[in-house]
Design a protein that fits this description.
Length: 268
């Protein structure tokens, strides 16, 4: 039974490809259906974010370049962590309403419900990967490009799997515990400040506290991106953390979702 549920979860996008493709296309373009700019916002939004943060940190706070990252400007250091985090936070933030918004569909139509958290994770990642790619193109033009960048899609995919597991659990539990909507929003905000995105880990002088950050998987993701892109180094310790954590989150989240999905119709 355990492996049967996992197999159904893992093979969902393949076994129900046409339905999965339609859901992704519908949810992705629904973000821009009523806007004048349309898909242009996919490019404008990250550019505006980068410009604003560059102005604030470079000209207002006048934050100095970070020596441990090769005298990299702080705004570049921050955006390398912020853009992948934004994809993660957007997907997790939406997770609590995924099944609630699809309640009429779930209760009236027989279809593989497990498609919803997969689509609910993929669409935010497709949306925010544009900004990350634009930043990478800029850094490549600045001379940061190395052969180790071939690992970036792998790490981004692992982060996607890690996020999907969390989205699956939260979307399922929120059917029974509606208060999770407020708790998740608060938790994402706390998680943001506990992840060294707007500050370098070197600001924490106590090595024991620095080691505690290894318990935060998003710290390992963010740090891996920065060392890979800015220093051209493959962080083995961070890679050894994110691989098992991502797979565990993806499989455990999928199993929990598949285990309790039969009760959704009774509650919704």
């Amino acid at each position: 039974m355990f492996f049967t549920l996992l197999r159904q979860w893992v093979l969902t996008p393949i076994n129900h490809y046409r339905l999965f493709h339609n859901f992704v296309r519908q949810d992705f373009f629904a973000q821009f259906s009523a806007s004048v700019g349309g898909l242009l916002w996919l490019f404008m939004t990250p550019v505006v974010h980068i410009v604003i943060y560059a102005f604030v940190f470079s000209y207002i706070f006048q934050v100095r370049p970070l020596q441990e990252f090769g005298e990299t400007r702080f705004v570049i250091f921050m955006m390398i962590g912020y853009l992948p985090w934004f994809a993660f936070a957007d997907a997790v933030g939406r997770s609590t309403s995924l099944l609630l918004e699809k309640a009429p569909l779930i209760t009236k139509v027989v279809f593989p419900v497990q498609i919803i958290p997969v689509v609910g994770t993929l669409v935010p990642y497709l949306t925010h990967v544009i900004g990350f790619v634009l930043l990478l193109l800029y850094l490549a033009a600045q001379g940061y490009l190395t052969v180790l960048w071939v690992f970036l899609p792998v790490v981004f995919f692992l982060q996607f799997l890690f996020t999907m597991g969390i989205v699956a659990i939260l979307s399922a539990l929120c059917v029974f515990l509606r208060d999770l909507q407020q708790l998740v929003a608060l938790g994402v905000m706390v998680w943001f400040f506990l992840t060294p995105i707007i500050y370098p880990i070197s600001m924490i002088s106590d090595p024991a506290i620095q080691n505690l950050f290894l318990l935060n998987p998003m710290h390992s993701f963010v740090n891996f991106y920065r060392e890979l892109i800015l220093l051209g180094e493959f962080s083995m310790i961070n890679f050894q953390i994110i691989v098992p954590v991502s797979l565990l989150s993806y499989l455990l989240g999928g199993w929990v979702f598949m285990k309790i999905k039969q009760a959704f119709g009774d509650v919704l």
